[in-house]
Amino acid sequence: MHPAAIRRLSELAPRKIVYVSCNPEALAEELPQFRDYQLGSVALFDMFPQTPHFEAVVELTPRSPVAPGKVPFIEMPQVNPGQDPGARQHPQTHVMRLTTNPGLENVVVEETRRLFPTARLTPRPGGIQAQVLFEYEIDKPVQSEQASGEWVVKRLQGLGAVHRVISHLCHFTVGRDSETPAHIAERLSELEVPGLAAADSFRVTTERTGNQEFRSELVQRAVGAMLVRRYDKPVKLDEPALELRVDVLERHCLVGVDHGPAAPPHRQARVFQPRITLNSVVAYAMLHVTGLLRNREADITLLDPFLGSGTILVEAGAQLPNAALHGIEIDPTTAAGARTNIEAAGLTHRTTIQRADARLLSQRVAADSIDCIVTNPPFGVRMGKNTDFGALYRDLLREFSVVLRPNATVALLVGKRRYLFLESIQARSDFELCGSTLIETAGVFPELFVLRYHS
Ligand SMILES: C[S@@+](CC[C@H](N)C(=O)[O-])C[C@H]1O[C@@H](n2cnc3c(N)ncnc32)[C@H](O)[C@@H]1O
Backbone phi, then psi, for 96, in 5-degree steps? Predict the structure, then answer.
């Protein structure tokens, strides 16, 4: 089933889904994508005796019941953006929307909570993926730097698991068929956009998920034209002074001022970016789930045996100032590219890169020398049908067990055939499965597994 179909089915929020499949392997891949549903029952039916075919029937029920056909309610406080900040009364609430990859919402919550212990954080408000709602109340005079919106935004932009920080302005539900870009523009015709009166230029950006009849550009154009009339400011597509987000996510329209990508210098410095490059936000989340970021100053040794362009090591280097970093990569061009990225990030002095096969890792890396493996083996999307993933995972676990120290952690992404990976772990007694979460990155749905190694 196409991921968009799974999203749409989940959004319709039926009380029960009965999924009949003649391909149990595909079914096993897809079931975790029904995030809000749990397995009720499973049965196999031999509909065509004397043939190798059978039907798998699964019953899925909601994890927390939602009335059928109802759009989940997003509890978002009213913001009065037109008010002059100097005239605001205390307490003052900053309401922001933080975006991330689907599946990493809880990483954002945990990371943000450390910086803002009193903030109210809602992962996936109204069931919308890849969003975290941040509400932070400050009871200080606005003159204090720590009460200013800019200070809050700047700190949020430093978060590793966040793509964008958006000051939330308003939210409304988009009707199923009747809503058009013109209606959306009309509903926003009274909206005060803070900062737009003083800005030289602006642009409207729309992210859209769901099966609306219209395209994102039409929303951008309709809302943009309305704001040009109201504010008499020009639209500038490249580097505008202000960016208004009008996102239509399933049946929600979420509007806010986008403060731009959270892009720390080590992420901008990357020179070599092949197609396989992992998103830095995902790399950060992988480091986060290992628990390593709780003690950033520790002297540890971290290995990525499927180095690619080196995203994981670059992120680890920035987050863990005392870590020794090792990378293994089989492809010579990619290994050379990774070296350039490591150099651009200023990490050459504490990084080694070897051209080798990860399946023979123990020939290159000393036994009992690694505290943590964080890696992104090929997902299998472009690998031939005959690739033996069972053998790959078995080989990797065998090699990991040689180089890892007792109590070491492993975080890795597994694309297709995650059940083969689980079988490989179950076949061993030295790896404990600590947790897993399904994520979305670049249109694929790998699962992020965390293991602990016990010798
Ligand atoms: C999914 S990519 C890793 C992407 C990386 N995280 C990045 O951000 O660029 C997997 C990498 O593993 C490499 N690779 C594939 N099989 C390998 C093997 N047996 N040993 C070592 N590297 C391998 C591929 O050449 C590719 O660069």
Answer: -130, 155
